[in-house]
Write a structure and sequence with these properties.
8 strands, 6-stranded parallel sheet, alpha/beta
Length: 201
Protein backbone atom coordinates (compact mmCIF):
# COMPACT_ATOMS: atom_id res chain seq x y z
CA UNK A 1 0.00 0.00 0.00
CA UNK A 2 1.46 3.36 -1.01
CA UNK A 3 2.04 5.91 1.72
CA UNK A 4 2.48 8.82 -0.70
CA UNK A 5 0.09 11.68 -0.28
CA UNK A 6 -1.91 12.71 -3.41
CA UNK A 7 0.26 15.77 -4.00
CA UNK A 8 3.35 13.55 -3.94
CA UNK A 9 2.03 11.08 -6.47
CA UNK A 10 3.63 11.06 -9.91
CA UNK A 11 1.97 13.38 -12.40
CA UNK A 12 -0.20 11.69 -14.99
CA UNK A 13 1.55 11.28 -18.35
CA UNK A 14 0.72 13.93 -20.93
CA UNK A 15 -1.22 12.61 -23.92
CA UNK A 16 -0.47 14.36 -27.19
CA UNK A 17 -3.47 14.71 -29.49
CA UNK A 18 -2.60 14.99 -33.18
CA UNK A 19 -6.06 14.64 -34.70
CA UNK A 20 -6.96 16.98 -37.57
CA UNK A 21 -10.48 18.32 -37.98
CA UNK A 22 -12.50 19.74 -40.86
CA UNK A 23 -15.48 21.95 -39.98
CA UNK A 24 -18.16 22.16 -42.67
CA UNK A 25 -21.01 24.61 -42.10
CA UNK A 26 -24.45 24.53 -43.67
CA UNK A 27 -24.85 28.27 -43.26
CA UNK A 28 -28.51 28.55 -44.17
CA UNK A 29 -29.51 25.73 -41.84
CA UNK A 30 -27.58 27.10 -38.86
CA UNK A 31 -28.67 30.70 -39.43
CA UNK A 32 -32.32 29.69 -39.78
CA UNK A 33 -32.18 27.42 -36.72
CA UNK A 34 -30.69 30.12 -34.51
CA UNK A 35 -33.12 32.76 -35.74
CA UNK A 36 -36.09 30.43 -35.22
CA UNK A 37 -34.82 29.74 -31.70
CA UNK A 38 -34.40 33.41 -30.81
CA UNK A 39 -37.20 34.89 -32.90
CA UNK A 40 -34.69 37.50 -34.07
CA UNK A 41 -33.54 37.64 -37.74
CA UNK A 42 -30.42 39.58 -36.68
CA UNK A 43 -28.99 36.76 -34.54
CA UNK A 44 -25.97 34.92 -35.93
CA UNK A 45 -23.58 32.18 -34.87
CA UNK A 46 -20.49 33.33 -32.99
CA UNK A 47 -17.61 31.28 -34.38
CA UNK A 48 -15.16 32.96 -32.02
CA UNK A 49 -16.66 31.03 -29.12
CA UNK A 50 -18.00 27.98 -30.94
CA UNK A 51 -14.96 26.86 -32.95
CA UNK A 52 -12.54 26.60 -29.99
CA UNK A 53 -15.13 24.57 -28.09
CA UNK A 54 -15.67 22.21 -31.02
CA UNK A 55 -11.96 21.64 -31.55
CA UNK A 56 -10.89 21.17 -27.94
CA UNK A 57 -7.21 20.18 -28.16
CA UNK A 58 -7.39 19.10 -31.81
CA UNK A 59 -6.03 20.88 -34.86
CA UNK A 60 -8.13 22.63 -37.49
CA UNK A 61 -7.41 21.40 -41.02
CA UNK A 62 -10.28 22.95 -43.01
CA UNK A 63 -13.12 25.40 -42.37
CA UNK A 64 -15.70 25.86 -45.12
CA UNK A 65 -18.92 27.83 -44.84
CA UNK A 66 -21.55 26.89 -47.43
CA UNK A 67 -24.37 29.31 -48.08
CA UNK A 68 -27.15 29.47 -50.64
CA UNK A 69 -27.51 32.69 -52.64
CA UNK A 70 -25.32 35.46 -53.97
CA UNK A 71 -25.82 38.11 -51.27
CA UNK A 72 -23.02 36.94 -48.99
CA UNK A 73 -21.08 39.51 -47.01
CA UNK A 74 -17.48 39.85 -48.12
CA UNK A 75 -16.61 40.66 -44.51
CA UNK A 76 -17.68 37.16 -43.49
CA UNK A 77 -15.21 35.59 -45.90
CA UNK A 78 -12.46 37.94 -44.73
CA UNK A 79 -13.04 37.12 -41.06
CA UNK A 80 -13.16 33.38 -41.63
CA UNK A 81 -9.91 33.56 -43.57
CA UNK A 82 -8.18 35.77 -40.99
CA UNK A 83 -9.27 33.69 -38.01
CA UNK A 84 -9.30 30.14 -39.40
CA UNK A 85 -7.89 30.27 -42.96
CA UNK A 86 -11.46 29.38 -43.86
CA UNK A 87 -13.52 30.06 -46.95
CA UNK A 88 -17.10 30.77 -48.02
CA UNK A 89 -18.64 28.66 -50.79
CA UNK A 90 -21.77 30.13 -52.43
CA UNK A 91 -24.29 27.44 -53.40
CA UNK A 92 -26.70 27.58 -56.34
CA UNK A 93 -29.39 25.89 -54.29
CA UNK A 94 -29.14 24.18 -50.91
CA UNK A 95 -25.79 23.41 -49.30
CA UNK A 96 -26.26 19.67 -48.82
CA UNK A 97 -24.84 18.54 -52.17
CA UNK A 98 -21.69 20.72 -52.25
CA UNK A 99 -21.09 20.07 -48.55
CA UNK A 100 -21.41 16.33 -49.14
CA UNK A 101 -18.94 16.46 -52.04
CA UNK A 102 -16.42 18.40 -49.96
CA UNK A 103 -16.78 15.99 -47.03
CA UNK A 104 -16.06 13.01 -49.28
CA UNK A 105 -13.04 14.79 -50.76
CA UNK A 106 -11.66 15.41 -47.27
CA UNK A 107 -12.42 11.97 -45.84
CA UNK A 108 -8.91 10.68 -46.59
CA UNK A 109 -7.19 13.87 -45.37
CA UNK A 110 -8.61 14.41 -41.87
CA UNK A 111 -9.43 12.36 -38.79
CA UNK A 112 -12.70 14.08 -37.92
CA UNK A 113 -15.35 16.00 -39.82
CA UNK A 114 -17.70 18.26 -37.87
CA UNK A 115 -20.88 19.17 -39.73
CA UNK A 116 -22.77 22.23 -38.51
CA UNK A 117 -26.33 21.30 -39.38
CA UNK A 118 -29.22 19.40 -37.86
CA UNK A 119 -30.71 18.45 -41.23
CA UNK A 120 -31.63 14.80 -41.75
CA UNK A 121 -30.36 15.10 -45.34
CA UNK A 122 -26.88 14.42 -43.94
CA UNK A 123 -27.71 11.05 -42.37
CA UNK A 124 -26.44 9.02 -45.33
CA UNK A 125 -23.31 11.14 -45.55
CA UNK A 126 -22.54 10.51 -41.89
CA UNK A 127 -23.01 6.77 -42.36
CA UNK A 128 -20.74 6.73 -45.42
CA UNK A 129 -17.97 8.74 -43.76
CA UNK A 130 -17.98 6.39 -40.78
CA UNK A 131 -17.48 3.40 -43.06
CA UNK A 132 -14.42 5.25 -44.42
CA UNK A 133 -12.98 5.39 -40.91
CA UNK A 134 -13.72 9.08 -40.34
CA UNK A 135 -15.04 10.29 -37.00
CA UNK A 136 -18.15 12.39 -37.64
CA UNK A 137 -19.54 14.94 -35.21
CA UNK A 138 -22.65 17.09 -35.51
CA UNK A 139 -23.09 20.59 -34.06
CA UNK A 140 -26.57 22.08 -34.16
CA UNK A 141 -29.50 23.61 -32.27
CA UNK A 142 -31.25 20.82 -30.33
CA UNK A 143 -34.76 21.93 -31.27
CA UNK A 144 -33.97 21.64 -35.00
CA UNK A 145 -31.72 18.57 -34.99
CA UNK A 146 -32.91 15.35 -36.60
CA UNK A 147 -33.02 12.57 -34.00
CA UNK A 148 -31.64 10.05 -36.53
CA UNK A 149 -28.77 12.36 -37.45
CA UNK A 150 -27.90 12.84 -33.80
CA UNK A 151 -27.91 9.08 -33.19
CA UNK A 152 -25.74 8.33 -36.22
CA UNK A 153 -23.05 10.85 -35.27
CA UNK A 154 -20.04 9.81 -33.19
CA UNK A 155 -20.59 12.88 -31.04
CA UNK A 156 -23.16 15.67 -30.81
CA UNK A 157 -22.31 19.28 -29.87
CA UNK A 158 -25.24 21.34 -28.67
CA UNK A 159 -25.21 24.92 -29.96
CA UNK A 160 -26.66 27.14 -27.24
CA UNK A 161 -27.14 30.85 -26.51
CA UNK A 162 -23.45 31.20 -25.62
CA UNK A 163 -22.68 30.46 -29.28
CA UNK A 164 -24.66 33.24 -30.96
CA UNK A 165 -24.90 37.01 -30.85
CA UNK A 166 -27.14 39.80 -32.11
CA UNK A 167 -25.83 42.04 -34.88
CA UNK A 168 -26.14 45.72 -33.85
CA UNK A 169 -28.43 47.62 -36.20
CA UNK A 170 -27.65 51.10 -37.44
CA UNK A 171 -30.29 53.70 -36.72
CA UNK A 172 -32.12 55.09 -39.73
CA UNK A 173 -31.35 58.64 -40.73
CA UNK A 174 -34.29 61.10 -40.58
CA UNK A 175 -35.77 62.50 -43.78
CA UNK A 176 -33.96 65.68 -44.98
CA UNK A 177 -37.21 67.67 -44.81
CA UNK A 178 -37.60 66.76 -41.18
CA UNK A 179 -34.02 67.74 -40.42
CA UNK A 180 -34.68 71.28 -41.66
CA UNK A 181 -37.02 71.88 -38.76
CA UNK A 182 -34.62 70.75 -36.05
CA UNK A 183 -31.99 72.81 -34.40
CA UNK A 184 -28.44 71.56 -34.14
CA UNK A 185 -28.94 70.20 -30.65
CA UNK A 186 -31.94 68.18 -31.77
CA UNK A 187 -30.02 66.80 -34.72
CA UNK A 188 -27.22 65.66 -32.45
CA UNK A 189 -29.72 63.95 -30.15
CA UNK A 190 -31.47 62.12 -32.95
CA UNK A 191 -28.36 61.21 -34.96
CA UNK A 192 -25.73 59.65 -32.69
CA UNK A 193 -22.72 57.93 -34.31
CA UNK A 194 -23.89 54.63 -35.85
CA UNK A 195 -23.16 51.56 -33.78
CA UNK A 196 -20.55 49.21 -35.15
CA UNK A 197 -21.91 46.57 -37.44
CA UNK A 198 -21.32 42.86 -36.86
CA UNK A 199 -20.53 40.06 -39.20
CA UNK A 200 -20.91 36.30 -38.64
CA UNK A 201 -17.80 34.50 -37.21
Amino acid sequence: MSTNRPEEAAAAPVVTISQSVAILVDGNNIERSIQDETGDPHTLVNFDTLVPRLLGNRGLNRFVYFREGKNISSKLGERLYQHYHGSVRPCHKSADIPLTIKAMQLSSKVDTIIILSGDSDYVELVRHLKTEGVRVEIAAIPSSTSHVLKEEADYYHEISREDWYKVPQKRGMPHPRHRQHRNRGQRAAHNPPPSSGGEEG
